[in-house]
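REQUEST FORM: STRUCTURE PREDICTION
Request ID: SP-0412
Submitted by: Lab K.M.
Chain count: 1
Length (residues): 315
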Amino acid sequence: MAAAALPGLTPPRPIPIKERTSLVFVEKCHLDVLDGAFVAVDTNGIRTHIPVGGLACILLEPGTRISHTAICLAARAGTLLVWVGEAGVRLYAAGQPGGARADRLLYQAKLALDANLRLKVVRKMFSMRFGEEPPERRSVDQLRGIEGARVKSLYTLMARKYGVSWRGRRYNPRAFDHSDLPNACLSAATACLYGLTEAAILAAGYAPAIGFLHTGKPRSFVFDVADVFKFDTVVPVAFSVAAKAQKGKLDDHAANVVRRECRDRFRKTRLLDRLVPSIAEMLEAAGEPVPETPEDSQPIAFEDPEGLADDGHRG
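STATUS: Completed
RESULT:
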């Protein structure tokens, strides 16, 4: 995607999220727009072009600086910027690529605030995650407990399948190097999934903070949605890489291998193509329509241009 439209030319349209490459990690460089291109410049002054308009998410690791121009271009392209810790384990902040739609926000908030509607959404997430309907007459807390027990068993089965030594999901997000190998691989893998999921949520016009199972965090809804896809995508990658690392079969840091293999898995499973429709499917399970605009509301002052890529993108 071009950095900006030439005088007299129509600005380029953002590429729809489902048609993009998933994500890239960037570390120890300066991100800027030079000669019309979004580039990473290393300490030796070598430029590496990054096709920002064709990416859903760019994760910025320690040692990365980014210019105002580069942030503006990423926002216009609808590409999410996420500031993360070493190997992507800790998520510090995210730059919203577009603007959440008011009708979608009100709809999401309505479902989250109504106990009955929230339960319907949680039940749908459960069925999508495990491929079966959850038990009847269970509260959100009870379903959370059932889900937690199943997830613990799935981790144990996955570790046994790949021959990985496993003592449970234990990690310290503030001290990546203190985690054992399987947990470090899982943390790196889930960070990839969270970045991609947040990009899809924002592009669809929803709020990452308004969750249903998870609450009280800036990315509660990100965790909700990502958990549905976690064991079909990044968890097998994490255990596979951990198994190779334990056998000394890796020629790079395990977290780096995990990120590359997650990127390939996202592309192979067409995860971006599935995320936005799946988010809609989860919320529609509540059986409530998107709220109508109140009749006495002030009309908008101007119309946005038509034909943008996704609902959440700004013009």
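NOTES: The two ends are 15 Å apart (CA to CA).
Reviewed by: T.R.
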